[in-house]
Every structure is written in C-alpha cells, then in structure tokens.
Amino acid sequence: MSPKELDELDYKILSELMKDARKSVREIAKAVNSSPATVHSRLQKLIKKGVIRGFIPLVDSSKVGYPVTAIIMVSAKGEMLRKLEEELRSIKNVIAIYDITGDYDLMIIAKFRDMEGLDVFVKDLLAREEVVKTLTHIAFNVVKEDLRLPL
Amino acid sequence: MSPKELDELDYKILSELMKDARKSVREIAKAVNSSPATVHSRLQKLIKKGVIRGFIPLVDSSKVGYPVTAIIMVSAKGEMLRKLEEELRSIKNVIAIYDITGDYDLMIIAKFRDMEGLDVFVKDLLAREEVVKTLTHIAFNVVKEDLRLPL
DNA sequence: CATGAAACCCCTCGGCC
DNA sequence: GGCCGAGGGGTTTCATG
C-alpha cells in the first residue's frame, strides 16, 4: 500500500486505454506526448501495482447467449459471509458482488443463459445455511453496463 | 439483426480476448489454431456486428480516486423514464443502469470521489419531477466487479 | 525515471484459393 | 469464407543522461 500515487502521465495513459484498451503503446505515447518506452514501463507498473487488473472486451451479453440479467439481494448470517462471498466470486455467471448497507447484506449481479439457470442459482443460494433470505429483481433491459470512469 | 450467429471460432476468439484483450492477433491465432488474417477479419466483423462494443482496462476504482460505490433504486413515473435513462446514461459516474422488476423501476450503480458526490447525485435525482422516490445502498466493499462471461 | 535506437515481432491488406 | 506474403508499423530492451 505504499508505492502508490499516480501522476498525471499515469492518468493520461489510463484515459487513453479507456478509449480503446487495444490501442498501441506508440499511439498512446503520441497522444500523451511521451515516448513508447516510457508508456510501456508505466503500463507495466500500473499492472504490477494492481491499478490495472486486466484488459477485457465489452461484450453484448445478449448476443453471446446470456440474455437474462438478475440482481439478487441476499441476507446472510454474518459469520459465514466471507466464505459465501469467496464461493460466489468464483462463479462465472456472477459479474458483480457488493457488500451493502440496508435490509440486505449482499447484492449480486449475475447473467444466465435462461430463466432456469437463474432459478437454479437462487435455489442453491437459499439452500445454504448461512443464507437467510433473498430478493431477486430481473433486469428486463440493460440500459448501460460500462465500468469506465472519468479520470 | 440478421447476419448474426456466431460460430465456434468466434467464441474461441472472444474467449482469448477475455483472458487478455490486448493479446495480439497472432497470439490469438496460435491459441485458436487459425491464421492471423482470419482472426483479424473475424475480429472486425465481431466489432461491426456489435458483439464487441469496445475494449477496456479493468481498473481498481478505489485506486484512481473513486472509493465510493452506491446502488440507487429509483421509482419513476413511466412516461419520462426513457428521457431520464438517456440522461443518466451519459453521466460518467454511472457504470450500470438496469430496468428492473419489483418495487422500483430502475437500478443505478455509480461511483463517486466522495460521499458528497453521491449526495449531490441523489438530490439531483429527487429534484426531478419524474422521480417518485429513491433508495440508496452504499457498497462498503466491492467483492467482485468483472463483466467477463463464460463462453 | 525517461529516452532513443535497434532488434525483433506484429498488423493489415491485396491477391489468391 | 480462409490463407499467404510483404511492407509498414509496433513492442520491448538496453545503454545512456
């Protein structure tokens, strides 16, 4: 947690990557007024520091066989929450998990090939001892889904 | 909406990109037993079809100045919902918007530099005529946030 | 820590199957 | 539709300021 502190060049490089994460090091260098070698080494550092956790394509999930998006609120007995989270984290249908304030402890966003997949997922959750109750919302329309942030 | 239907090669290429969206066309070709030229043309088609909407870095939001994540449920009068959505979509702090079933109409996930940013956002929402009520959950821990899907 | 240069590697396109 | 080859670029390392 010590060698952090991003400088302006780091932020500029991140901004360019947010426009297009496949942009070449050379192009980025041109856009940020630096050299390819410098951009390359900054990029490696950003990855090593964990600021950048990877590069992914933004895929339209309904076009690749996952038309069902659900938001599942979970109320759980505290002691087992960490273990539940670890298990949920490794389930590939789950795209987001948040610990939240309010009537529920956990919010899960997950995508499924069909309603049956969702049904099985929720029933499996409810079958667990540490899960007290769940509340499922179906997302019948994904208006936006894009992790980019303004830097 | 007609020339869709992805074949196995398309799915393999998408899978390689999910592992690392900066992977070179040549490396992808090697991994999927095809040629760089073929992978290149498939990739262009996937982008043109809208299956791939872009390439982004997965950034740790708390490390780039956005430590506050909130989930905001919104209940709104139906006629103005589309306009509200369009406006929300262009707000860069908003990373996801879903039309949902249940007691609320909309679920928004947004990130902020501090609590004040969240406060302003929610108050602006409530000031709108079409917004009936909101319910905000703070995510005090982001357990997972990764849009990749198993293909 | 940033840079330029050089060696190596890759992208992309037109022509062909 | 897929593949090959070539030319123009791109990436990465290293020695130097």
UniProtKB/TrEMBL annotation, chains A, B:
<dbReference type="InterPro" id="IPR036390">
    <property type="entry name" value="WH_DNA-bd_sf"/>
</dbReference>
<feature type="domain" description="HTH asnC-type">
    <location>
        <begin position="6"/>
        <end position="67"/>
    </location>
</feature>
<dbReference type="InterPro" id="IPR019885">
    <property type="entry name" value="Tscrpt_reg_HTH_AsnC-type_CS"/>
</dbReference>
<comment type="pathway">
    <text>Amino-acid biosynthesis.</text>
</comment>
<keyword id="KW-0805">Transcription regulation</keyword>
<dbReference type="InterPro" id="IPR011991">
    <property type="entry name" value="ArsR-like_HTH"/>
</dbReference>
<dbReference type="GO" id="GO:0005829">
    <property type="term" value="C:cytosol"/>
</dbReference>
<dbReference type="GO" id="GO:0043565">
    <property type="term" value="F:sequence-specific DNA binding"/>
</dbReference>
<dbReference type="InterPro" id="IPR000485">
    <property type="entry name" value="AsnC-type_HTH_dom"/>
</dbReference>
<dbReference type="Pfam" id="PF13412">
    <property type="entry name" value="HTH_24"/>
</dbReference>
<dbReference type="InterPro" id="IPR011008">
    <property type="entry name" value="Dimeric_a/b-barrel"/>
</dbReference>
<dbReference type="InterPro" id="IPR036388">
    <property type="entry name" value="WH-like_DNA-bd_sf"/>
</dbReference>
<keyword id="KW-0238">DNA-binding</keyword>
<keyword id="KW-0804">Transcription</keyword>
<dbReference type="InterPro" id="IPR019887">
    <property type="entry name" value="Tscrpt_reg_AsnC/Lrp_C"/>
</dbReference>
<dbReference type="Pfam" id="PF01037">
    <property type="entry name" value="AsnC_trans_reg"/>
</dbReference>
<dbReference type="GO" id="GO:0043200">
    <property type="term" value="P:response to amino acid"/>
</dbReference>
<protein>
    <submittedName>
        <fullName>AsnC family transcriptional regulator</fullName>
    </submittedName>
</protein>
<dbReference type="InterPro" id="IPR019888">
    <property type="entry name" value="Tscrpt_reg_AsnC-like"/>
</dbReference>
